[in-house]
Every structure is written in C-alpha cells, then in structure tokens.
Design goal:
Elements lengths: L5 E12 L9 H17 L6 E13 L4 E5 L6 H8 L7 E6 L3 E4 L12 H11 L4 H15 L14 H14 L4 E5 L7 H16 L3 E5 L3 H7 L2 E6 L2 E6 L1 H14 L4 E3 L14 E8 L13 E13 L2 E8 L5 E6 L12 E10 L7 E11 L2 E14 L32
Parallel strand pairs: 3-7, 3-8, 5-6, 6-7
Antiparallel strand pairs: 1-2, 1-4, 8-9, 10-11, 11-12, 12-15, 13-14, 13-16, 16-17
Helix pairs in contact: 3-4, 3-5, 4-5
C-alpha cells in the first residue's frame, strides 16, 4: 500500500487581530515586527487581542498521484493551507507531514529575487526547492521555452512585465523534478493563451503520476483536472469528495450568498493584485414592469467606479457564468465601443445593455474586469448573482427545457421528403 504523500492532522492557523502575531514565521515578518510591535502595542494600552482562525481542525490524507482541487470563497483558508504545506508559514496547532520534494507557485514570483536575471532566478528557485544543478540543467531549456523569455533571459527580472514574471515563475515550479506540485490561482494572471498553456502543463504533470494540489476559482479547470476536491469555508473543511459532488455543493451554496445588487468595495471575489476601483454593481430588467428577469428579456448591468486619478481609454468586460462557474458568454467595450467615449474620467458609471438575453432558466454570476489600454486594473470574480426564469420566447406556448444547455437560439426547420 502506498504511503501518503501529504498527511494533515487537526491543522489550525490563527492570527491576532489588531497586532502583529508574536509567532512570526518568516524573516521578513520578524524584522517588520521588531519595528512595529512596540509602537503599535504602546499606542493602545491594555487592549484585548482578538484571535482569528484562518484554519481550524483540518485533517486530510492525500495519496501519491492524487490531483486535489481546493475550492472556497476568498478568505476560506485555501492559500493559508498551501502556505503551511509549502513551509512558508507554521501552523498554530496540529501537524503536517509531506513525503517527497514539493514545488509551489503560490504568488507571482514567489522565491524570485528582483535584482537577479531570469537565468539566475531559475537556478536560485531550483536550489530553494532542493534541486541539484545537474537536475536544473536538464530542465533548463524546457523552462525557458515554456516561459517564452529567451530574449530577456539575462535581464534582471525587476524589468520584466507581469506576464513575463508569472510565465517564468510557473515554468520553474512546473518543470522541476518534484513529487508534489502546489499551485494557487495561477489562472488569475496572464492572457488566455498562457492560461491554456498552464492547464496543459498541469495536465501533463498529473499524467506523470505526481501529486498536485490546485487552488482555482476556474471551476471547469478543477472539474477537468482533479480526481478529488476539497471545499473550505471559513477555515473549516466543509466537504471532501469527488469533484462533481463537491463543486455542485460549492456552486449552490455560493450562489445563495450572492445578490443581483452588490457593494464591491470589499468584495471577497476581488483578485489579489487588483486595485479597488469598482464600487457597486446591479443587474436589472430594463422593463419598468418586470418583477424579475425572463428568458429573452432586455437587461442592463450597471457598475459604479472611482479611480485614484483621471484615466484615458477606460475599458470594461462582463463575463456571464453558469452555476458551475463555466463561462457562457462575454461582452466588452473593445468590441462594442461605448457612446460617448470619454477622453478622461475619474468617477463614473458603466451601463452595459444586453438585448434579448439568450440564457436558459437558471442562476448565473458575473465576472467584472475594469481596465485601461489593455491592462487589467480591477478584477472581481462572482461579483453578483442573478436568476433567469423560463418564458415562451418562441411564441409556441412551450418553454425550452433547461437540459438543452445554457443558451437558447432561434432556428428555422424544414423537413423534406425524398423519393427512393
């Protein structure tokens, strides 16, 4: 019988709200704590310290070769769990046993030194992961080819674009010879081509029999790649089982907590590298007499925003997803330019009008992207939920059956008789 690759026993991680945790677990935290703790604690004498449990009572047994998806809303404890497994931070209670070399991509460029070149960082990161130089040499060309940074290999990474940075970081973690790969939201950064490339590489890794822990809000990727799924909620293990069962429960419970109108200023779905520009969203039926949204209705999506300074070339995207998180369709201002087009704007409201909504009955969520000149500034996943009810959209007295898919479309039929 195979020994477990990862064993987590009654794991807990707590932080102290209102002051720096005295049990600093990294050099940076310790140095910062020396300069901050005395002044901070002296400023509020006799204050009570509140303890926040990012994880509590987590137990898992992961076998070699298992591909485990970790899902949950922002703040559920997913990243904290992976940081403990990667030995970036220490648990408050419980213990973790990891058998085999582990490579992790938790944040863009974790383990990189900005003053070193891309070439030097490949060897530095490989050494941190416990790889010998000969092992890194064997994989070096594959890493460089995957990252597509050949021309900039001997340039300091501080001059890299965010796309180049994340490509190289992922390439190093995914190509080195480790038994366990831990990936946290790699699909949240980069363009569609890079995201597809990452998924392809992760799929290759799973076929090599390596153990993978994969955190993502991209439910189709989790469904397609993972053999098992773990659902965390408020730092506790909510569900552990096959991906279809777990993802269905997660999508159902997440949708119940969303509304057709949301304050976005502190939204849990905001991407970690985003600036909080979007402040409010609402999805409504454009008919003044409508009680809800029906198939074929004209709807509008309104988003309020406030930027730190006046901007040129504001761009906006809306992606509609079904209750399993699969994209159904998207619209953006690059394809359909807004009228009027502002030269500069600092505070405003975007109104997206969608005619004859082609959605079947069900629950849907929106991903919102606010940007400028092809650069994402604020990205919010699952910004709000809206429901679509059935309607006689074709005037036949019949409502299309929901099992037909997520969208409906008119068609003209002919049935012709042919002679033998």
């Amino acid at each position: 019988m195979n020994r477990s690759a990862i064993v987590v026993e009654d794991l807990g991680k707590s932080y102290r709200l209102g002051q720096r945790n005295t049990g600093s677990t990294s050099f940076r935290e310790a140095v910062q704590g020396m300069f901050r703790s005395r002044a901070r604690n002296a400023s509020v004498p006799g204050r009570q310290v509140e303890k926040f449990w990012a994880l509590k009572g987590i137990s898992l047994d992961i076998k070699p070769g298992e591909v485990v998806g970790v899902v949950g809303r922002n703040g559920a404890g997913k990243s904290t769990l992976l940081k403990i497994l990667s030995r970036i931070t220490e648990p408050t209670e419980g213990r973790v046993r990891v058998r085999g070399r582990l490579a992790s991509l938790l944040e863009v460029g974790t383990g990189f030194h900005i003053e070193l070149t891309g070439r030097e960082n490949i060897y530095l990161n490989g050494s941190i992961l416990g790889m010998r130089k000969a092992e890194i040499d064997r994989k070096f060309d594959e890493i460089v080819a995957f990252a597509e940074v050949e021309k900039f290999l001997d340039t300091q990474v501080k001059y890299y674009s965010s796309g180049m940075y994340v490509r190289l970081a992922f390439a190093v973690a995914a190509h080195l010879e480790t038994q366990i790969l831990v990936v946290d939201e790699v699909l949240a950064v980069g363009d569609m081509a890079f995201q597809k490339k990452c998924l392809g590489r992760i799929e290759e890794v799973t076929k090599e029999g390596r153990t993978v822990l994969f955190v993502s809000h991209h439910m189709p990727a989790v469904q397609g790649l993972c053999t098992r799924c773990v659902y965390l909620e408020h730092g506790k293990l909510k569900l552990d089982g096959d991906p279809t069962t777990v993802l269905s429960a997660y999508a159902r419970e997440a949708s119940e907590k969303l509304n057709a109108e949301e304050n976005l200023e502190n939204h849990p779905g905001r991407q970690s590298d985003s600036k909080p520009v979007m402040t409010w969203v609402r999805v409504t039926n454009r008919s003044p007499h409508a009680a809800g949204i029906l198939m074929g209705d004209d709807i509008q999506v309104e988003v309020k925003f406030r930027t730190p300074e006046p901007m040129n070339g504001v761009t906006f995207w809306v992606f509609v997803k079904n209750n399993m998180g699969t994209p159904v369709f998207g619209v953006d201002t690059d394809i359909n330019a807004p009228v009027p087009t502002w030269e500069t704007i600092e505070k405003g409201r975007v109104v997206c009008l969608i005619d004859r909504l082609p959605l079947m009955p069900g629950s849907y969520t929106l991903d919102l992207y606010f940007g400028s000149r092809n650069m994402n500034i604020d990205v919010i996943h699952d910004a709000c939920r809206f429901d679509v009810d059935g309607a006689d959209v074709f005037g036949t007295g019949k409502i299309p059956h929901p099992t037909s898919g997520n969208v409906f479309w008119p068609a003209t039929w002919e049935i012709l008789k042919e002679d033998d």
